Write the structure tokens for this entry.
Amino acid sequence: MSGNGKRGDILVIGGGISGITAAIEAAEAGANVTLVEKEAYLGGRVARTNLYFPKMCPPSCGIEINIRRVKTNPQIRTLTLATVESLTGGPGNYKATVSKAPRFVNTKCTTCGECVDVCPADRPDAFNLGLSTTKAVFLPYEMAYPARFVIDEASCLGATECGKCVEACPYGAIDLAMPPETEEIAVDAVIWATGWAPPDASQFEGLGFGDFPNVINNVTMERLSALNGPTAGKIRRPSDGEPPQSVAFVQCAGSRDENYFKHCSGVCCLASLKQARYVRDQYPEAEVYIFYIDMRAPGRLEDFFVAVKEDEKLSLIKGKVANITEDSATGKLTVEAEDVLSGQKVAQEVDMVVLATGMIPEGIGDTEVEGGVELDEHGFLAINQPKGYLAAGCAKRPVDVATCNRDATGVALKALHLGAE
Ligand SMILES: Cc1cc2nc3c(=O)[nH]c(=O)nc-3n(C[C@H](O)[C@H](O)[C@H](O)COP(=O)(O)OP(=O)(O)OC[C@H]3O[C@@H](n4cnc5c(N)ncnc54)[C@H](O)[C@@H]3O)c2cc1C
């Protein structure tokens, strides 16, 4: 707790770019920070992105330097595979109960991979949205922090039936009997940085997600384009593995829609422009169509929009997509919309469709909060919380990475005030 001029103790829930940034900024200003992340690694959704707009650099650029700051700062304690079960109290005297699932791999792990070589069990790779598999013992991704293997308990055959990894590990790093743990922590401030998830697009009527294999969503497109993704970065039609010669992007899929999600996620237009680049960089002959309601590229991001739309093989069609149908013999898709600028009905045949689905809040309900939390009309955390909780990045509203960084820095400052004497 705060005392002797120290900056107090801060709990950050969620280890994506917002949580990492808040933790670093607060710790570098003198606070003791506990960073709680439910996955086995830090980085959140950004770690699963292929390239960032607007600079089109890989996420490793930003994540690597921030992870180094986390790693080297003794005032940040990182708990992965951890969730905050409950929260009580108020500013200056919160109490959190944190539960930690076992990793089954201890700090002696050097990521040599001997365990992976002998593991007989496979599991769907959640990092790649289940589009590839890993062994039951795995490194979440090559830049994962902590840089340590983890064992998926649900897929592992266990010590009595298997135990090959325990024998193979030269460092004694695997402990299949590692128990779950619970700890109580007292903090002055709590920052929620629980981020976002994509909505289930199969609920969006007429768009064919889940029915037609060549209709994918934008988060899948990030993984299909990434060198560390399931296709080693080759964008292929899911139905037959062929390179697509035409791709349509459907903006506002389920967003700004009274029937599904009313909010605009703010980044999907830019994400599709970026993904149009992925397609065009790989396939110089491919045609790309973006069906949109309004093209939203706020502030300096307008430059990115202007640059991408110069591409003569990119067509921008202003019209909401009403329906997508499939030719089951060829897997080709027909996207139907009304072009509001020409007044003409459009029926565009393409090889693949990418639904630009938005961001919905994630993980807020995982914690039992005394007195509850205040949500906005879209389910994100409201800015003013009755119990003084702070929120950063996409826990508060859907935004891009640069906004998350600014937001998290501001919130860290507020948290420091709660912890200062
Ligand atoms: C298709 C697509 C492409 C995008 N491309 C770009 C781009 O190129 N450039 C750009 O600037 N932005 C891009 N964005 C936006 C970017 O992904 C977000 O700005 C960013 O992920 C927000 O970071 P965050 O830390 O707030 O949330 P997240 O990345 O969602 O991180 C939240 C973290 O909290 C953890 N968590 C959740 N609940 C709990 C809990 N209860 N307990 C513990 N941990 C929890 C999660 O596991 C996760 O690690 C894109 C978005 C989409 C949809």
